[in-house]
Structures are given as structure tokens and as C-alpha cells.
Amino acid sequence: MRSDEDVVRLRKVVREELISLGFGLVDQTKMITAASELARNTLKYGKGGEGHVLKLKDTVRIGLELVFTDDGPGIPDISLALTDGYTSGGGLGLGLSGAKRLSDEFMIDTESGVGTTVLIRKWKVS
Amino acid sequence: MTHAPGAQIVEIIKNNQKDLVGDLLATMKKKVIRLDKSAENEIIIQATQLLGFLEIAIPQGQLSDLETRAWDDTRQLLSDFSQTRAKEGFSPIETATFIFSFKEPLFTLLRTSLSNNPQLLAEEIAVTSLLFDELGLLTISSYQKAREQIILRQQQELLELSTPVVQLWQNILALPLIGTLDSARTQVVMENLLQKIVETGALIAIIDITGVPTVDTLVAQHLLKTIAAARLMGADCIISGIRPQIAQTIVHLGVNLEDVITKATLADAFVVALKTTGSSVTNS
Fold it and tell me: Strand A49-57's sheet: what is its strand order?
């Protein structure tokens, strides 16, 4: 992801995948919004990076996994970054924490100077 | 006879212009399907012009550098040619074929005239080949530029099209938003709305987001800023068109829209706006 257009494109891909997996409208909207937040973070704070969309399947359920990776400056204090209303870049400070609330699983891995990886998953009983 | 690179090719162009253009057409017809009579005539004119320019440019210019002054006319001609082609919807391959189709007939003529001097023949073919490759790349890059201009123009048109501010009633404006709200568009939207508030002295502006597929924190922030700016100018805003899934998402995101009047549909928002401005609509 290098530009705003890529965020729009990613949202489109995520939407199509969610529809093909049979997710309901509310879950679609939640996941797409979460994807939008994380993609924009990757772009804005990570100075660009990659977004991966993966279909998941275990014995009883199917799901979608999104992974965002950048090699930007990293997040110095994760719990601070996950605090509602905290922003280092002039936003509302709700993107990262909102994405966590909008998804079923949320993982974040960051190292100062190396980069940040955020993973979210949404599940649906098949 | 001189041995400057390209000297032979100039001679050949000079002496065989008519034949070359004819051969070019034949070669192009083999490769390109679409060539009606008017397109053919156009190609004849452009090919003759190009050969004329080459005849002048090759002897005085560096063959490897098409950026030099000697190639000004040629560059201009090819850039015009590519731009027309791009606008007419030809593919880049079809466009570049015009240039590359010169190679075959030129090589044939070179072979005939230099059959007794294989070394010079090889040199001339190499020089000519390089030159026409460069010219071909030039057409592609001009074609690309023309296409980019078209896309840019369409983007700008879209920007204007997609942000109408309409007056619903005395003192009531509506702004139906459609599509993705990125920063550039939001800027235009906000300016249009504030301008219209000044022009009409409206007291209420209804921002309808039925057509906005995703409301994330950035969109919410843009909306809140627009509302704050409108409020500074004395107009209150109502957000309408909040669908159930968007409402749930906004709650999960934690965006605070409590200070803003929001309604599910534009009709609901209109009723509120009428009430606020002291107007009413009755069935008779």
C-alpha cells in the first residue's frame, strides 16, 4: 500500500471476499471499516507497507484474516496507542482501538525502528 | 559517399518516400485490423510528414539523443499523433506499430542498395533500428501521457459532479454524499457547502451519507470538521442516511456523534429541519 487509492482498493477486495464467504451486512461493514483504519495507519504511520487478505477455515467455522505489515518507525507504547482518543497524528485516535473492537481477534507486533504488523480476524460459523 | 551514421538511410528516405509510405501501409494492414479509408489517408499524411522531418533531422542530429533541438519537429509530430490516437481509443500497440512498421520496408531498401557492402549495411541497419526503437518509445510515452491527462480530467470532472449542494426549502440545504470520502473530495465538499451557506443564508444543512459505503474514523473526522465549520457560520447540520450496519460500526469504533443530530433517512432529517426553521408541510 502506497497511496489513498490503495486503501480504497483494499476495501473493495475485503468486501468481495466477505461477500463470497457469506458474511452478513453488519459483519461486512465492521470488517471493512477495520481494514480501512488499519490500512490507513499502515500508510500514514508506517509510511506504506503491505496488506494481505487470507481466507480461514477450521472444523466449525470460516473466517477472514487481514494482515498489515509496514517497516516504519514502530509503536513505542502499544497500550497508549490502543487508548481511545490518543493520537500522534491528528486523527480521532480511535482507529487502532476501533479496529480491535470491530474484529474478533486482534494481534499487534511492533518493534521500534523495525516496523509494525497488525493482524485481525473475523469468524463466522459455517 | 559519406559514412556518417544514418547517411544511407537519409538517401533512401529521400529517394523512396512514396514507396516507403505504401509499404508502411501494407505492413500496418498486416498487423493492425482497424484501418478505414480516412485513417489510411491520415497515416499517409503523417508518414510523409515524418519522413520529411527525419530527412532533415538525421544528418544534423545525434541519433541516440532525441531530446536535442534537431528532433523538435519529429517529437512534436509524434506526440500529436499519439495523443490523437489515445483519444480515439487506439491501443498503445496499435499506436507504436505505426513507427515499427517503418523498419521492415527500410531494411529491405537498405539491403538492396548496400548489397555490395555488408559491413556498412550492418552498421546502417543497427543505427536505423536503434533510431526507430527510440521513436517507438517516444510514441508510447506520449500515448501514456495523453491517457494520464484523460484520467486526470475525468477525476476532476468526477470531483465536481459528485458534490452538489441542493436547496431543499427556504433556509434548508442538502448535501447528498456519494462514494469514497478522501481528503481531496472532502475539501471540495466542505468548501461547496460553506459557500452555499453564505449564498443562501441557510440555517440547516442536511448531510446525507446514504451513498457513502464506509464510514471510518477519517470520514467521521471529516464530517465533524465540516459540521463544526458550518456551525461557526451559523448553520446547524443534520447527518442523515445512517444505515443500521453503519450505526453499529460507528458505535464500535467509539466515534462520538452525540453532539450531532442524526437521522436514519433524509426524509426524517427534512421533517426535523422544517420544524427547526418554523415551516411545515401539510397534506390537503
Answer: A49-57, A61-70, A115-125, A105-111
